[in-house]
């Protein structure tokens, strides 16, 4: 099964963690003899701040908790092989395609204290000269301790172990989850949005997966249905009549029912930027789906959160 967790192959410890991609995708962290290598391709930043997932000026952790978790996954690695298909300039036309701008891969690596970064998953339309120019841009961005180069066939790298045995947490919520069991059977998902077109799109996306779907068109109805039905996951629009998504989230996080306090809540929003993201996470949301979104991306994120829930991991991991 494509599941998060850890296992061992001989003396090699392997950690698997979900990446952000329209298909359910795992990255792998290999630890052996004091050396750490992370393979993280087919990954897109979770936050939608135009400045990128990491605030380079402030020097602090990312605002989006899934980006914090990604940095923790890379933390202290001797070598990270990372998705770097686009440039920052190209990315606005390729949002939700499941890949990272090369410059932001550098920002991830610097925030994680990585030693060497191999840019991987090159755009097939980029010729060698253009790739060389992009690598130079990334080297300048990573100046000050990060070795950046383009991954290529037949490269042989020798690593000297750093002694880092496990990811260091960037925040209390940025830990690696235990190995989950297989995805449980039929699960209830509550879809709350006052736009019937969005509700229809999400219904058509998730119904073939075998989920039992519940719908609400305002915040107060969503809150009542959540308490009555106790869904496994809630897709919740930010702006709704009655009570908005943030208000509903705060109410559920303060509920006396522990299942409702920990249920995965994914906020549906067209709002971007670190400030808006922080408001939702402060209220207790689990994740964001930024409109417009692709059906394949919705399916992958929903499956990942239900798999985490099946492992016993809290909804707000």
What does this entry show, briefly?
With 317 residues, the protein is an alpha/beta fold. Helices cover 31% and strands 20% of the residues. It folds into 2 domains: 146 residues, Metallo-beta-lactamase, Chain A, CATH 3.60.15.10; 123 residues, 3-Layer(aba) Sandwich (Rossmann fold), CATH 3.40.50.2300.
Structure description:
There is one protein chain. The chain has helices at residues 65-74, 102-112, 128-141, 196-206, 219-229, 245-253, 258-262, 274-283, 295-310, and strands at residues 5-9, 12-18, 26-32, 35-40, 79-83, 116-120, 147-150, 188-192, 212-216, 233-237, 264-269, 287-290. By secondary structure, it is an alpha/beta fold. It folds into two domains: 5-150, Metallo-beta-lactamase, Chain A (4-Layer Sandwich), CATH 3.60.15; 188-310, 3-Layer(aba) Sandwich (Rossmann fold). A seven-stranded mixed sheet has the order 1-2-3-4-5-6-7, covered by helices on one side. It has a five-stranded parallel sheet with strand order 9-8-10-11-12, with helices on both faces. Helix 1 crosses helix 2. It is elongated. The protein starts with a strand and ends in a 7-residue tail after the last helix.
The biggest beta sheet reads: 7 strands, mixed
* Average pLDDT score: 84
The number of helical segments is 9
Return the CATH class of the largest domain: Alpha Beta
- Basic shape: elongated
Task: Record keyword descriptors for this entry.
single chain; 9 helices; 2 domains; five-stranded parallel beta sheet; seven-stranded mixed beta sheet; Metallo-beta-lactamase, Chain A; Rossmann fold
């Amino acid at each position: 099964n494509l599941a998060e967790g850890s296992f061992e192959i001989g003396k090699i410890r392997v950690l698997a963690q979900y990446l952000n991609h329209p298909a359910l995708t795992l990255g792998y962290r290999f630890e052996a003899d004091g050396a750490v290598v992370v393979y993280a391709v087919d990954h897109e930043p979770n936050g939608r701040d135009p400045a990128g997932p990491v605030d380079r000026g402030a020097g602090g952790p990312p605002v989006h908790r899934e980006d914090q978790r990604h940095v923790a996954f890379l933390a202290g690695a001797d070598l990270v092989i990372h998705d770097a298909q686009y440039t920052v300039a190209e990315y606005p036309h390729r949002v939700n395609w499941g890949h990272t701008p090369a410059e932001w891969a550098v920002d991830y690596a610097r925030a994680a204290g990585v030693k060497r970064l191999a840019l991987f998953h090159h755009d097939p339309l980029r010729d060698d000269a253009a790739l060389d120019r992009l690598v130079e841009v990334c080297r300048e961005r990573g100046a000050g301790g990060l070795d950046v180069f383009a991954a290529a066939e037949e490269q042989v790298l020798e690593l000297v172990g750093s002694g880092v045995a496990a990811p260091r947490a960037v925040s209390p919520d940025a830990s690696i989850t235990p190995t989950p069991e297989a995805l449980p059977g039929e699960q209830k998902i509550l879809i709350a949005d006052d736009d019937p077109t969005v509700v229809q799109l999400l219904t058509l996306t998730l119904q073939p997966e075998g989920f039992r779907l519940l719908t609400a068109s305002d915040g107060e109805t969503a809150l009542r249905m959540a308490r009555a039905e106790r869904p496994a996951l809630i897709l919740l629009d930010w702006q709704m009549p009655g009570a908005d998504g943030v208000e509903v989230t705060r109410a559920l996080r303060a509920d006396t029912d522990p299942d409702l306090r920990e249920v995965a809540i994914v906020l549906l929003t067209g709002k971007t930027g670190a400030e808006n993201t922080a408001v939702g996470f402060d209220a207790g949301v689990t994740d964001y789906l930024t409109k417009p979104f692709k059906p394949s991306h919705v399916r992958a994120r929903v499956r990942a959160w239900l798999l985490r829930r099946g492992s016993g991991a809290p909804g707000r991991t």
